[in-house]
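> run fold Dihydroorotate dehydrogenase
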Amino acid sequence: MTKLSISPPLLNACCPWSTTLEHLQALYDSPYTGAITFRTSMIKGYPDDTSVHQYAFFAVGRAVSSAERNVVASSPETMNTTLNTIGFSPIPLSEYLGMINDIVKDEKTPSKLLIISVTGPAEEVAQGYAMIAEVAARSPHLRLAIEINLSCPNIANKPPPAYNLPMFIEHLDSIAKAKKAAASQLPATSVPVVGVKLPPYTYKDQFEMAFKALKHATSSVVDFVTCTNTLGTCLIYNDMGVPTLNSETGSGIGGLAGAAIHPLSLGNVAALYALLAADPTTQDILIIGCGGVEDKAGYNRMCKAGAGAVAVASAVGRLGVQVFELITNEK
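> ok
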C-alpha cells in the first residue's frame, strides 16, 4: 500500500465549524488546506438539540458558552480551550454526499482529499462506505475518504468503540468487507481510503489494544488514523457555580479540546507512531495529529511526534478559516 499523502499537510478536524455547505466551502477554498473533513454524520442524521448539545470556549477561570459567541469572538487570545457536549451532525450522510459536486465545482482533477466522517453501528458504517464508493464510481476523479468516528465521548449509553477491542475490530471487519467490494469494481486510485478517529488513550494497555486492532485490519484496510478526539468526562462551572454547559445526561460533562488537550494529544501521536512504525503491516498508516494546534509551533510539535498531517478544530471556531494561513506563514 502506498502511504496516503495530504498536501499541504494541514486540514480541519470534524467539528461544529465543518457542518454546513458554507463551512465546508470555505475550508475547501482555502489554499492552505490539503484536505477537509466533514462533520461526523450518520445514515439518518443525528437528532440535534441545542439545549443539550453545546460548546464553550474557556481559559483558566473564565468560561463562555456557545450562547455567548460575541464574547468568544472578542477574546480570541485567551479563550483557547473548549468543552463540548455536542453529538453528531443533524445532516444525514446522503445530504453531505450531495454537497460534494457543489464544493469541488468544475475542477477536473481536484487534489484535495474529502474526508467524510461517519459513525454508527458497524453495519451502518459499512453502508456509509458503500455510499461513498458509489460517489467515487460516478466521479472517479475525486479523492474520497471515510473517517470512522469511534471516539465521541458525549453519547449517552454509547461508550466509544475505540476503547473496546471487540467493538473496534467489529467496525474494522465490516469496513474491510466494504472496501474489498469497492476495490473489485473501481480503479485503484478511486477506491475511497479509510481512516479511524481515535480517542485519547492514557495508559500503555490502551495503545497496545488500538495497535492490535489496526494490525488485525492490516494497512490495506486502514490508511490513516486521526489522533485524537476530545477527552471525555470533563466539566467546567460558570461564575455562579453551575455547569457552563448542559448535556444529554444533564450533568454538563463533555469532551475537552483545544490548548488544554495538546500535551495529551502529542503523547498519543508519539506513542502510536512508535507502535505503527515498528511493524511492517502498519508502518504505512498515516497519523493525522489533532488536539490543541493553533499556531506554527503546535503544528511543528505534532510533526515531531510523528504526525504526517495536522488537523485543527477549536482554533477554526475561534479564529476562522484564516487560522490555516496563520499556521502556514508564521515565522
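The chain has one domain: 10-60+78-329.
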